[in-house]
Structure formats: C-alpha cells, structure tokens
Specification:
- This protein has 277 residues and is of the alpha/beta class.
- It contains ten helices and nine strands.
- A six-stranded parallel β-sheet has the order 1-4-3-2-5-6, sandwiched between helices. A three-stranded antiparallel β-sheet has the order 7-8-9.
- Strand 5, helix 7 and strand 6 form a beta-alpha-beta unit.
- Helix 6 packs across helix 7 and helix 9 runs antiparallel to helix 10.
- The longest helix has 16 residues.
- It is globular and about 55 Å long.
- The chain binds adenosine monophosphate.
Length: 277
C-alpha cells in the first residue's frame, strides 16, 4: 500500500494502476462504516484508493474542525489489511492553495435539512469531492447512506457535471444497540452514549408505525419527535419525512421516503436516517 500527499505523487501512482479504480473518500478516524465502503470497493474494482482529508471548507465557523478526531497511524493500520492500493492524504494547502477561488454549488437539493442547519456545508463537500474525482479519476466512488443528503447531492453533481463515475451508496453500519457508527461518537461520554440510541429508537418506531399502515407524514414526524422527547439529553434540531429523491417534506407517503433527523446529545451533533421503500 502506497501513501501519497502531493498531486504529482498521486498522478504518477494513479497512472501505474491499470483496470478499474474505486475511490473511497473519508475524513479519517475510520470505523467499520468506512471499512465497509473499502471492502465493497475492493469487491467491485481492480484497485482501491482511499482519501483521508478533513476538509476545512465543509465546517461552519462554530463547528468542530480543530477538534475533529484524527489518528492517521491507526487509520493506515485498519486500511492496509483490506488490500487498498493507495491512500491519498493531501494537506489543506494542497487542496486550497493561496489564491484559491473556485467552488462547486448544487442548488435545490442542498437547501433543506443539513443545508438549512449547516449553511455552506454542501458547497465545501461538492467542491472537495469534485477535486477528489479530478485527482483520482476513479471509475466508481463509494459513499455511505449514513449521510443520505450528501449521497443525493453527490449523485446530482456527478450527473450535472458529467463525471464518468458511478456513485455507489452503501448501507449504514450500526453498533450492536443500533447507534449509527460515526467518527463523532467518540465525543460522547458513557451517559450520552446510552442516550444516543434514542435516534435509532425513534426511527424504528416511525418505521413500525408506517408498516402498520400509517401514510400521514406529519403523524410519522410526530411519532419520531415523541420518542426523541422521552430522552432528556436529546435536543432535536430537525426531524424529517421527505421524498427520497427531492428531499422535499411530504404530506402523504406514497413513494420512496427518507426519514431523517439531526439531534444534539450534549455538544455532539448526531444524524441518522431510515429509508421507507
Ligand atoms: P466521513 O469520514 O464521516 O466523511 O465519512 C466518509 C464516508 O463514510 C461517507 O460517505 C459516509 O457516509 C460514510 N460513512 C460514515 N459513517 C458510516 C456508517 N456508519 N455506515 C456506512 N457508511 C458510513
């Protein structure tokens, strides 16, 4: 496994790989969720490239950029046994050199949900992913359903900008009690960690309600809110029952839908979602 940081190193390493290439973009501090993406890429492609870059432009001024967890040595030890060919770890100066002024913006689909709560977030995500795509030139790129809106936004950008890349979205990997794996889970103290399963409980309750025949989206949102309200440590930012493709809030569920939420447990912001198909 080779590790590179500069664009020249990346280009020459990339040129030496023949056959299909799968890219797994990450911000590091890897867990089983990330590793599931790498395994899937390994199954489907001749070569796998993992990028590790904590992208400053997708963090808001009050967000956790400086304390975002990092452990490159541990990450490399986790990636190596999976048969990854190349790890690209650019610095912020390589991605955004002095005088940088070009941005990629996707419109409507970035407005609701995470886009409302985190202004500018998706502009940072789409810009960096476009740069990762240009640098790596993969045939396929792997993203997690955990960040459902991000996956939808990347699919839209890929179509709109004609990137010849197939976007593969992989299922959410969860802890045994249902908490969706996230690099940010390390911020939770033991009491908060227990409280954090309320997101999964809330989504599960909503899904059961749907499976019993409820199609009124407002009632489904209310069920999710009720369960979240039962946990004193949970502070809800949003709860959504939206159309799976457009992410517009639904009145009635009569097509594929996305149940999603953002909830603070203490200072840690957690997101999770279920798809109703
Ligand atoms: P991040 O390092 O948080 O930017 O995540 C990198 C990629 O891993 C993104 O495509 C995420 O959606 C995906 N990912 C993060 N957590 C999970 C999870 N629990 N299950 C599946 N994919 C995940």
């Amino acid at each position: 496994m080779r590790n590179v940081s500069t664009l020249d190193e990346l280009r020459s390493a990339r040129l030496s790989l023949s056959g299909t290439v799968g890219l797994v973009p990450t911000m590091g501090f890897l867990h089983e969720g990330h590793l599931s993406l790498i395994r899937r890429a390994k199954e489907e492609c001749d070569h796998v490239i993992v990028s590790i870059f904590v992208n400053p432009t997708q963090f808001g001024p009050k967000e956790d950029l400086s304390k975002y967890p990092r452990d490159i040595e541990r990450d490399l030890n986790l990636i190596e046994p999976l048969g990854t060919d190349l790890v690209w770890m650019p610095s912020a100066e390589i991605m955004y050199p002095k005088g940088y002024q070009t941005w990629v913006e996707v419109e409507a689909i970035t407005s609701p949900l995470e886009g409302t709560m985190r202004p500018g977030h998706f502009r940072g995500v789409t810009t960096v992913v476009a740069k990762l795509f240009n640098g790596v030139q993969p045939h396929k790129a792997y993203f997690g359903q955990k960040d459902a809106q991000q996956a939808a936004v990347i699919r839209q950008m890929t179509r709109d900008l004609n990137f010849p890349i197939e976007i593969v979205v992989c299922p959410i990997v969860r802890e045994a009690d249902g908490l969706a794996m996230s690099s940010r889970n390390v911020y939770l103290d033991p009491e908060q960690r227990k409280a954090a399963i309320v997101l999964f409980r809330s989504l599960s309750t909503a899904k059961e309600t749907y499976e019993k025949g409820e199609r009124d989206a407002e009632k489904i949102r209310s069920r999710m809110k009720e369960v979240l309200a039962s946990e004193p440590l949970a502070e809800v930012q949003y709860v959504s029952c939206a159309d799976y493709d457009t992410l517009e809030e639904l009145t009635e569920i009569n097509s594929k839908a996305l149940l999603s939420m953002a909830v603070f447990i203490g200072k840690t912001r957690l997101i999770d979602n279920f798809v109703l198909d």
